[in-house]
Amino acid sequence: MKKLIIATAVLALLCSCQKSIIDKEGLYQNGIVAFQSNSTGELAAFLEEDGPITFTLASSTKLDKDVTVNFEPVRDQAVLEAFNKAQGTGYWLLPEENYTLDKHSAVIKAGNAVSEPVSMQVSIDGFKNGVIYCLPLKITGTSSSMTAIPGQEYAYVVIRGYVYASAANLPGGSYFEMPSTVSDPALSLEVCTMEIRVKANSWAGSNPFISSLIGVEENFLLRFGDISCDPNQLQLAGQGVSITSKAHFDTGKWYHVAVVADGIKQTCDLYINGELDSSTPMGGKGINLGKVYNSKFAIGMSEKGRYLNGQVSEARVWGRLLTPTELMNNQCSIVDPVKEAQENKLLGYWKLDAENRGKDLTGHGYDGYAHGSVTYTEANIRCPE
Questions:
Q1: How much is the pTM?
Q2: What are phi and psi of 127, to 5 degrees?
């Protein structure tokens, strides 16, 4: 039996439901129906093999008679592109041969406000590693006078696949350094997002208890630990900004970590596995990844030491603010570095695998050079674990 690389199924309304049409029980008012979702528009379905994704529809109130709600898959690339543009995503249309719907309607029975479940069978044949697939659905009518929320007739089944990635192994004293970043004016930024996947083997055991992750010390550096926090807390340290995660990290476990810094609005946010962890004001300073503080921009090292003992994968720096949706998706997605560099301000992208090693795949030339005993684990690291 084929193993499924589907990780999550999402039902996301095209427009966020306005509070004015939600009653105290969380259902829709004014005799209307919609695809049912939670407050974030998501349904999680973690499957290990080809199997079903289920969803339901909801009415504004409990009904006094059965009502059938009809819907259809929408295989229109323009509809998906409009959704992608609105959400800042890059979903691919789910191929027609990869799904079957057991029916194109659902009945909300008398005395209920939620329909019977609808099942969509999904096959993984031909799925591409790291691609997120999407199938728009549209409410086409009901057996009564009830209608869909105007402008929200659509829902989007989003299927995130497991990514099998490689990683660089950095035993203490090994790291990547990017010499071409030095004094590059393109790296003096008003806004920035920096993200990386990491698994620590151990934490720094001596003062200042720092395990460096990515960036430049005293300018813009993601690291674990400091004398001001525990060795297993994530910290962003830089000119005019310092923020420490509420979360504590475990060794032997993969995490996606990111910092989103807005030098215009003077805000800085830490994200862990796509979820906001903590926020702080920036303190009036900009971001300059081309500066040097004893050491250049690096992964796994800062200030000529403070090494990370662990593994790293999929490191990226953007000259824009990634959205929470993008950060959630980026945990386990593979981006097109050239396209993203040309269209979406991807400044640096390091896969950190045996084929590319420390090469910057954007074409901007911020190649990283390995120091110490860097080795590579081939594509058997599953995300999410």
A1: 0.76
A2: -60, 140
